[in-house]
Amino acid sequence: MSTIVVFGAGGSAGSRIVAEAVGRGHRVIAAVRRPEAVTYLPPGIQLVTGDATSQRSVRELAPDADAIVVAIGGGGRELWRDAAENLITTLRDLPAAPRIIHVGGGATLLTPKGTPHFDEPDFPEQYRDAALGQADALGWYRSSADTVNWTYLSPPPLEFHPGERTGHYRTGTEHPVLNEQGRSVLTYEDLAVAVIDEIENPRFEKMRFTAAY
């Protein structure tokens, strides 16, 4: 059993990661900025006030953790990069730092041309700041690879939604995983499976990976 801190535990991805972890018998600390706004989390978790961009929050929660999951959202472009920078700079000073699993943007995955999906002409403008912020975070992790153990997990660029938990998925690294129809698809539920699988059986340490059917 691992102790897992989930920042953003009340969100679409975070709440499912919490449920998956608890269902497998892990101890979960659900960290959210506004606990009073969380309407449902499964029984058996510890709900706390926490912010991945706060050095104080990370210092308070990290010593008890085996892994820290970052599943945050709802901010401007700087949110994800600030979280990555804060986690790396705070954890590298700890004698036994937990591993980071950052749920990142699918639009940072590369097209066959080798350019990120957020550079495609038809990429929705309303998602551009978030995509750029997630790219900034990935760059920060990669520039800090020798200091803290991290993994960055990108969902599919477009077809990522709530749905069924199948427990099955395929993995890739820099390009989306495509099915026979040329689509990259994954549910939040199976993203959560991929997160906890990676915590239990690490395969992508200090690198980015992606998952889809």
Descriptive overview:
- The chain is of the alpha/beta class and 213 residues long.
- It has a single domain (3-212), classed as Rossmann fold, CATH 3.40.50.720.
- It is built from five helices and ten strands, in the order βαββαβαβαββββαβ.
- The strands form two sheets. It has an eight-stranded mixed β-sheet, sandwiched between helices. Strands 7-9 form a two-stranded parallel ribbon.
- β4 (67-70), α3 (78-91) and β5 form a beta-alpha-beta unit.
- The two termini are 27 Å apart.
Strand order of the largest sheet: 3-2-1-4-5-6-10-8
Classification by helices and strands: alpha/beta
Alpha carbon gyration radius: 16 Å
Q: Can you tell me the overall shape?
A: globular
How many beta-strand runs? 10
In terms of DSSP E residues, the strand content is: 15-25%
CATH topology: Rossmann fold
Kindly report the name of the CATH homologous superfamily. NAD(P)-binding Rossmann-like Domain
Q: What sequence of helices (H) and strands (E) makes up the elements?
A: EHEEHEHEHEEEEHE
How many DSSP H or I helices?
Answer: 5
Overall number of domains: 1
The CATH architecture term is 3-Layer(aba) Sandwich
Distance from first to last alpha carbon? 27 Å
Mean pLDDT: 93
Q: What level of helicity do the residues show? A: 25-40%
